[in-house]
Amino acid sequence: MDNKKYADFLTFKRPKSLQINDLAALFCGVKKTVYTSLKDKEDEKAMNLLCSQFGFKKKILKEFKDIKGDKTLDILIGRDVKRMNLAAKAYLNGRPYEWGIWLDYPDCCVDFFGKWEKGDKNSLIKAVLEASYKGTFFDFKVNNVLNFYSRIKSEDLKFKHASFFKKNSDFFRLGLDFEPFLPWHPCSYFCKKSLKAAEEIYYFMSKYLPQTAEKRKKLLSSPILFKDDFDWFIINGNVKKNNKEISVLGSGVLPPLSLAQDRVFKKASKSEFPKDLNFFKKEKYILLPFSG
Ligand SMILES: [Zn+2]
Questions:
Q1: Domain assignments of the chain as residue spans, ordered by start
Q2: If you measure from the C-alpha of residue 193 to the centroid of ligand 1, how many angstroms do you get, rounded to a whole number?
Q3: CA-CA distance, 233 to 212, in Å (whole number)?
Q4: 140 with 217: CB under 8 angstroms?
Q5: % residues pLDDT > 70 (the chain)
Q6: Can you tell me the distance from the alpha carbon of 95 to that of 24, in angstroms, rounded to the nearest whole number?
Q7: 64-104 tens-digit pLDDT
Q8: How remote is the CA of residue 121 from the centroid of ligand 1, in Å?
């Protein structure tokens, strides 16, 4: 396969509702089946071209009208039709565990997500953090703080999600990209299966889409001060370790911006780390030591 063909389909020839990480995962074999949707004729045309060029098959799951009243098709794509049929069956019969397994998510992560969904309504990020080792850095390739898929359930979070997009609309219009490498939520930042899969997706993207991979790496390997799903700061800096203590070296914050209170945001945007780290700890922010 020539590099240009992969690069073209990962960028301008890609159906717009299909994420780059999902398509890269399908191309490199980390995923055999991908769940996506089609919004309009243009999307459908792009999907048909993608499928014919790479030998993927399409399976329609359901047709519905989105919030704007536009026709949307939920579909699966992949080469293994038998597997897609089993996934579709699990989806239509409301069996989320099987559905996750047929979509190639690691069993530990599917299990973890199911338990979180049934349990208390704390942020999923806090649950992942709770399950992770302390006192050591997190790999940027499994950073899911900005992956809002599947974890935005309540009306309150849906409202905040919309506000987040509104607040950052200028950044997004200028092409700010914050998609993660891992297309699912890991069961911990040390989940071996997720780390291996994310490594393969990252390697594939670095080969065929080097600039995008590099840009994403820069953002996703920045440490984060986290309080809640829409209350966090991405620090413009790096983590460092002195003896057993992890601290941050850097200043100010990187976009996108969360919905943190103005008072705290003003402090964060001017902060010099590690000097001001205690202020944020007192405000109940937890340091997520993502690193490159
Ligand atoms: Zn896992």
A1: 1-104
A2: 6
A3: 22
A4: yes
A5: 99
A6: 26
A7: 887 667 788 999 999 999 999 999 999 999 999 999 999 99
A8: 20
